[in-house]
Amino acid sequence: MTKDKKLTTSWGAPVGDNQNSITAGSRGPTLIQDVHLLEKLAHFNRERVPERVVHAKGAGAHGYFEVTNDVTKYTKAKFLSAVGKRTPLFVRFSTVAGENGSADSVRDPRGFAVKFYTEDGNYDLVGNNTPVFFIRDAIKFPDFIHTQKRHPQTHLKNPNAVWDFWSLSPESLHQVTILMSDRGIPATYRHMHGFGSHTFKWVNEDGDGVWIKYHFKTEQGIKNLTEEVGTRIAGENPDYHTEDLFNAIENGDFPAWKVYVQIMPLEDADSYRFDPFDVTKTWSQKDYPLVEVGRMVLDKNPENYFAEVEQATFSPGTLVPGIDVSPDKMLQGRLFAYADAHRYRVGANHNALPINRPKNEVNNYQRDGQMRFDHNGGGSTYYEPNSLNGPSESPEDKQAGFPVTGVAESVSYDHNDHYTQAGDLYRLLSKDERKRLVKNIVGAMEPVESEEIKLRQIGHFYKADPEYGTRIAEGLGLKVPAEVK
Fold first, then answer.
1. What whole-number distance in Å separates Cα of residue 463 and Cα of residue 173?
2. Which residues make beta-bridge pairs with 110?
3. Where do the segments described as Disordered lie (predicted)?
4. How confident is the model at residue 123 (pLDDT cuts 50, 70, 90)?
5. Catalytic residue chosen out of the listed positions 36, 55, 193, 418
């Protein structure tokens, strides 16, 4: 029987024997001249890039976005320019705190990252399955994530750190309530909503702007797992969500989401009852109703997990003309942190990899760096400005400006009401949903060793809703601190 393809080394030479190392006789030591062996072992040692600091465990799929409503009066983004227009995309779903080998069905937010391959370059929307986040300033992010990771001595998860941080960061209460509710463990990646979470700015052809928030509404319906079922599945099939997404697409059951935005006039940002750039808060849909934009469909599985899912890189700073950022302090930090993480983890040329490479032509003066695997600009002009007809700027594509005022100093947000929205959410829950919420929180707080931490957190729950705090206190065998009543 003949073989169609010869096994080769990475430099293309045919391999004569892939079963036996070259040795000095049948029992002699292995010879260093066996360059095929050396290459295999050296490459094997380097097969794992560092895992993501957060969102390490995930699954991905290809698909498309189709515009279903005319939004050109709000944005000049070309991929949103006409009803019926389709744009290819890649999506990565993930858990946040766990390592690459952790279980899918744990209580954790889910990452919801979308890469649109538009004709004006890639556009990344890097969000979660929740509309808010735990903190609102990026300077607190490393500390927050440290609490979600392992204790440096015991190498175990540390509920003392988790609840100490949250109890000292009352802005986290809204997201904590969501996390500990039924929504904390989605049944699958297909049965959850997605959100851009941050406030962004859309700008139209005339330079007029609006503030917007993204909402992806699952067409499969919302389904969640109880704590008990999630724990059981984590033991039986830790890759449950990864497997479900792959099998659904493989079987032609393509998951889809309707995409909407909330739209706020620029001037409303100065008068709205919550700071619209505070990612720990939502905008009421009564004030700013959902406006339909399009539909996202996932219809193709990756051919290779590492090449596509693991090497996919997303950053909220990957923008296209017509979509700008806002003064959201958490977003401002992510503009640097995400792209920098990819430069460290995958390399300075990560955007040249097939999964990240834009569909349109790339023209710039960036050269060299590790793993530069294209023609590296050849002999073309490598600086700018130049008089040699090299790529030049297009003033019409500048980001729209906005006025800024104030003193340069370290300041907090002006609005510090961290309890109203969390309390409203609690009161929206049904009787059974509240019961499960309280049970989940009590179970998560019981291992905390410090009574002071427990009482401090109980105070936050009580300020959101007296019943909320009282039931947590009773579940922990404590009393609500008198000073918060």
1. 10
2. 95
3. 1-26, 372-401
4. very high
5. 55
Burial (Cβ within 10 Å: 0-12, 13-18, ≥19) of residue 118: buried
Outline which parts of the chain fall under CATH 2.40.180.10: 58-139+186-360
The pTM is what? 0.94
- Has 128 been annotated as catalytic? yes
Q: What CATH number labels 58-139+186-360?
A: 2.40.180.10
Tell me which residue has tokens 């297009």.
394
Which residue type does 190 have?
Answer: R
CA angle 338/156/141 to nearest 5° reads 25
**Distance (Å, rounded) from C-alpha 277 to C-alpha 132?**
11
pLDDT averaged over every residue in the chain: 94
Tell me the DSSP string of 250-270. Answer: HTT---EEEEEEEEEEGGGGG
State how far the alpha carbon of 85 is from the alpha carbons of 114, 115, 118, in Å. 17, 16, 11
What tokens were used for 85? Answer: 């227009």
Structure tokens at 32: 């260093």
pLDDT tens-digit readout, 353-387: 999 999 998 998 889 988 888 899 999 998 888 89
- Mean per-residue pLDDT, 155-183: 98
- CA 321/CA 457 separation, integer angstroms: 44
| Residue 316, burial from CB neighbour count under 10 angstroms (0-12, 13-18, 19+) | buried
What does the alpha-carbon distance between residue 55 and residue 339 come to, in Å, rounded to a whole number?
14
Q: What is the DSSP letter of 84?
A: T
The yes-or-no answer on residue 18 being catalytic is: no
Question: Per the structure block, which two tokens stand in for 325?
Answer: 């950022």
* CA 429/CA 406 separation, integer angstroms: 41
| Residues 6 or more apart whose Cβ sits within 8 Å of residue 303 | none
Q: What is the pLDDT of residue 27?
A: 87
Q: What is the mean pLDDT of residues 412-436?
A: 96
DSSP-H helix ranges across 151-285: 159-167, 173-180, 227-236, 240-250
| Residue 292 CB-density burial (10 A; 0-12 exposed, 13-18 middle, 19+ buried) | middle
Residue 421 contacts residue 177 (beta carbons within 8 Å): no
Per-residue pLDDT tens over the stretch 9-42: 888 888 899 889 999 988 888 889 998 888 888 8
Q: For a pLDDT cut of 90, what percent of the chain falls above it?
A: 81
Choice among 36, 62, 128, 174 that is catalytic: 128
Residue 285 pLDDT class (50, 70, 90 cuts): very high
